[in-house]
Specification:
single chain, globular, Rossmann fold, binds guanosine-5'-monophosphate, 3 helices
């Protein structure tokens, strides 16, 4: 529990060290996987804001091939712990002909990533991959073809390491379960 969140119970799930070593591994796999395809044009990381911003900052620094970064903002309407099924997506991307890797915090029902993917594919990238820090396969409703996964987690509500509840808890360095 964080001292400046008095009365809030956050049960640690994935530690700072576990996050760091897994991201090192993923960065190596991505670097090897894209080494050939990105010889002419660098890999483009498309980071889904806000939740993936800390993950993306660490992932970028674990990648050893030329790569650039841009952002898409996604937010779902409705109450804060459940999705309403309506996702608002905002971006200013130029991705035609680029090899892109979407960087997401959590894939839950799959709705958000499915909508982002559909929008980006319409812009004709050379290829499109998906890298998520957390995958919750038990709650999937919309099929998603994930290329790289950090951790597979159960159906609990997770905060920390950039991931919020009502905009709070992003600064917590580990991933934990928020008990209500
Ligand atoms: P989906 O569209 O796949 O159902 O949901 C994806 C989005 O819902 C994530 O990017 C995240 O913003 C939010 N979300 C899903 N599960 C959790 C969770 O356990 N904790 C938090 N804070 N957000 C979640």
């Amino acid at each position: 529990m964080k001292e400046h969140h008095p009365g809030t119970a956050i049960t640690p799930l994935i530690s700072v060290n576990e996050i760091a070593s897994r991201i090192k591994e993923i960065g190596k796999t991505i670097s090897e996987g894209y080494a050939e395809t990105t010889q002419d044009s660098p890999l483009l990381l498309v980071v889904v804001l806000k939740g993936a911003f800390i993950f993306a900052a660490d992932l970028l620094r674990s990648i050893t091939i030329p790569c650039t970064i841009d952002f898409v903002h996604a937010s779902s309407y409705g109450s804060k712990k459940t999705s309403s099924g309506i996702v608002a997506i905002r971006h200013n991307l130029a991705i035609t002909g680029r090899h892109i890797l979407i960087v997401e915090d959590i894939i839950d029902t799959g709705l958000t990533i499915q909508q982002i993917t559909a929008e980006l594919i319409a812009m004709k990238p050379a290829s499109l991959g998906i890298c998520t820090l957390l995958d919750k396969p038990d709650t999937r409703k919309y099929p998603v073809d994930i290329t790289y996964t950090g951790f597979t987690v159960p159906n609990t509500f997770i905060v920390g390491y950039g991931i919020d509840y009502n905009e709070l808890y992003r600064e917590i360095p580990f991933l934990g379960v928020l008990l209500s």
